[in-house]
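FYI - complex with nickel (II) ion, inputs then prediction.
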Amino acid sequence: MDSLYHCRPFNYSERENHTLIVQTSKQTMSNTSYDRAKEIKAFDETKAGVKGLIDAGITQVPRFFIHPTETISTSTDHQFQIPVIDMKDIDTKRKETVERVREASETFGFFQVANHGVPKEVMDKMLDGIKSFMEDEVEEKKKYHTRGPNKKVLYNSNFDLYTSPAANWRDTLFLRIAPEPPEAEELPSTCREIVFEYSFHMQKLGEVLFELLSEALGLKPDHLKEMECSKGIALACHYYPPCPEPHLTLGTSKHSDPGFLTILMQDKSIGGLQVLHQNQWIDVPPSPGCLVINIADLLQLMSNDKLKSVEHRVLANKDGPRLSVACFFNTHYSPSSRPYGPIKELLTDGRAPIYKQVFLDEFTKYYNSKGLDGKSALDHFKI
Ligand code: OGA
Ligand code: NI
């Protein structure tokens, strides 16, 4: 196995007198002993994320980022496209808009929205703010590095680093914004103001979307709002560094989202998001000005499987960095949390509930402990 000897151990950071030796892709095929847990821990302790690996000049993907070939297959289906729904005429063409939302949510579980009212400058500034944070000095980012469950502001690489079968080529700044926002000083100065402004627009748009979805389910417009679906938001601000061997890993593994609904702002030029439809991956290319909306697990549960929480993933990319901001609607952070189950108005004509009533903290705990392992968390809550 001479490849082993051609591959120098990767020296993470001599500046800190702290050497991280990780096995890389070339060594993976050799029969050297491999202590995965130790390498993961050493990587985590650098607190510099995947960006730190790139900054240190790594040219091969460390072994714990490598996914089985079959989960990375990049064959895509070009026959389908995620629908784009124009929200400009939402009042004058209400019925048509609701119908398009219903159809997209029942089939793809995804749609994009145009003319959604979030100003372009706010979107641009948000991506710039996240980029500034992620590209700041490691010393600055380290202040926010944690895996603490109750923190409102946390930065790390792979929330499920210690539990998922393979790590993702991605770093994340995670912000719990509503219903109890962090103090301004708790946020990094690089993105402080824009995070609050962007979040304000997310909540406004979220309320409009929950009205459309309530109507799509045949309920009164404020039904989902009254069930507090738009009350809690968290922002997952992702940074996908360029990857030297994108065929070996993923930016984000296949998963469905845990909350009620997600509003995703994608990078302006670098793609990689894919949605599973009829067992095929469909690309969702960057679409300037649009936001991507997807139904998440709890709304599938509440709609008793009428609306679909569909699996999606992000490919790793040689170009980059790719940035994205996912706004998750999920109220489990609220102390007044209540259980959620299939909505009783939808259980007419002898339809039986498919799911149990679940408390959101219970759901989130299960989702997080499982990690992104490619399986749906919803199955666990079936009757
Ligand atoms: C997520 C997600 C997609 C992206 O955060 O749940 O699916 O493009 N993100 O980053
Ligand atoms: Ni997602």
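Residues 236, 238, 252, 257, 264, 266, 273, 312, 314, 324, 326 surround N-oxalylglycine (ligand 1) (CB under 6 Å). DSSP finds twelve helices and 14 strands in the chain.
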